[in-house]
Design a protein that fits this description.
Helix content is 39%, strand content 21%. It has a six-stranded mixed beta sheet with strand order 1-5-4-2-3-6, with helices on both faces. A five-stranded mixed beta sheet has the order 8-7-9-10-11, sandwiched between helices. It has a five-stranded antiparallel beta sheet with strand order 16-20-19-18-17, covered by helices on one side. Helix 2 packs across helix 5 and helix 15 packs across helix 16. The protein binds magnesium ion. Magnesium ion binds next to loops.
């Protein structure tokens, strides 16, 4: 297989991703399983998966490899990624999640979890890659091979963990009416169960585990949530909630049917939970509203490169209370150091109950910023584009820790090559939608011009 010839990195920003039986074959998955089983010193490894049709095939291949290294598998079944991470955390055992998050249904993936419930850091993934390429697998004798134990209480432990972080009694008294769109994903039963335990009356959409995601695209963007938006627009709901495929993210629709950007939810939760002296971690791609909110609340804001695992790690190092990304991935430290869709939903309901306010009213208290996101195909080396942008922005303050962020008089623009696709992502932020869009378009045109110029040479 191509992957084995060139010693290319196998793990990306969020584990190994690929198309089953194309680049993600059962043979490859089994060898990754052998590498994982060799790497982890613990005798037991928890495993779970999302609803994808290819989940059992990849799960069985990976678990077979792990068992051949003499490790026992705890099969948690279909669960949200954060529920699997929580199980790892409370039992102090490593884990593996078979998921491709929000990617289209033809993909799947393998993600490793450390015994503290966080995504495995890059340097440890590199050791697993080394075992894979060097074929230094532990091979147990027949009487030492691992077995599978079916675990049925992981979801119960997870829901109890989430409930513990909020004032469930206060939420129950509000009897919220919630529409929830599971998008056929991993939280199809756990999030409705959580909402009911919080006293909500719940109407579900697409809450069947359909591994082809036939109801909607798994990425929780407004254009993919038209049904949910329509349902909530009826005026009969206090809130709409949707997850991505593995439910580590949550996005919200307010009672008027308005889609709330992940950035705004993050700002809102940060504003309502920080106390003076707290630390907050977010990547350079999230809004300046975060700076304003943290300054007003006496909290310290720490910016990182883009990527949720990095935010989690930084939160642990800096003992931060809360962190997250602009896409609806929120990390609540008192619960666990990973993105968690159900925890995010519970925090929003908790805030609505505490303030006896609708989401729309709460949002009106957040400083208004807009982020406009565009992308363009990458046709030349990133270094050429980078030089062109730095030349264009000479004299302006820039940050090149991850792509290029240019600070403008009335906002900023972040340009970075995607880690998974041959595209350049462009984020423009300003106080108005029109200006944010103009900034993003200006840099999109600039990049296209740089690329045309370079390819004409
Ligand atoms: Mg996800």
């Amino acid at each position: 297989m191509k992957r084995s010839d060139e010693r290319l990195p196998l793990f990306g920003t969020n584990g190994i991703r690929g198309e089953p039986n194309a680049d993600l074959t059962p043979d490859f998955a089994m060898q990754i399983g052998k590498s994982i089983g060799t790497y982890f010193k613990d005798g037991t490894i928890a495993m779970g998966r999302d609803t994808r049709d290819t989940g059992p095939m990849i799960f069985n291949a990976v678990s077979s490899g792990i068992m051949s290294a003499g490790k026992e598998i705890l099969d948690l079944g279909i669960l949200p990624t954060p529920a699997i991470q929580y199980y790892c955390k409370i039992n102090r055992i490593p884990g593996v999640v078979i998921t491709a998050s929000h990617n289209p249904p033809r993909f799947n993936g393998i993600k490793c979890i450390a015994a503290d419930g966080t995504e495995l850091p890059r340097n440890q993934e590199e050791i697993i890659e080394g075992i894979y390429y060097d074929r230094t697998f532990i091979q147990a004798t027949w009487n030492n091979c691992g077995r599978v134990r079916i675990i049925t209480d992981a979801v119960e432990r997870y829901l109890a963990g989430v409930m513990q972080q909020v004032n469930a009694e206060a939420i129950r008294t509000q009897e919220f009416r919630v529409a929830f769109d599971a998008g056929n994903g991993a939280a199809y039963s756990s999030t409705p169960e959580l909402l009911r335990r919080l006293g909500c009356s719940v109407v579900t959409l697409n809450a069947n585990p359909d591994g082809k995601f036939t109801s909607r695209n798994s990425e929780p963007k407004p254009e993919n949530l038209k049904d949910l938006i329509n349902v909530v627009s009826s005026g009969k709901f206090d809130l709409g909630i949707a997850h991505d495929g593995d439910a580590d993210r949550a996005v919200f629709i307010d009672s008027t049917g308005h889609f709330v950007d992940g950035d705004i939810t993050l700002s809102l939760i940060v504003k309502s939970t920080i106390k003076p002296g707290d630390r907050v971690v977010t990547p350079i791609s999230s809004s300046d509203a975060m700076d304003e909110i943290c300054a007003a609340g006496g909290a310290e804001l720490i910016r990182t490169r883009v990527g949720a695992p990095l935010v989690s790690r930084t939160m642990i190092e800096k003992k931060a209370k809360i962190g997250g990304e602009e896409n609806g991935g929120i990390i609540y430290g008192p619960h666990q150091y990973c993105r968690d869709g159900a925890m995010t939903a519970a925090l929003v309901l908790n805030l609505m109950a505490a303030r006896k306010s609708g989401l729309k009213e709460l949002i009106s208290e957040i400083p208004e910023y807009h982020i406009h996101k565009l992308s363009t195909d990458r046709k030349v080396e990133w270094e050429i584009i980078k030089r062109g942008i730095l030349g264009y922005a000479s004299g302006m303050k820039t940050d090149t820790s991850d792509g290029i962020k240019v600070f403008l008089k009335d906002g900023w623009v972040l340009v970075r090559p995607s880690g998974t696709e041959p595209i350049i992502r462009i984020y423009g932020e300003s106080r108005t939608f029109a200006r944010a869009r103009d900034i993003a378009q200006e840099y999109q045109a600039l990049i296209d011009g740089i690329q045309e110029g370079a390819s004409a040479l």
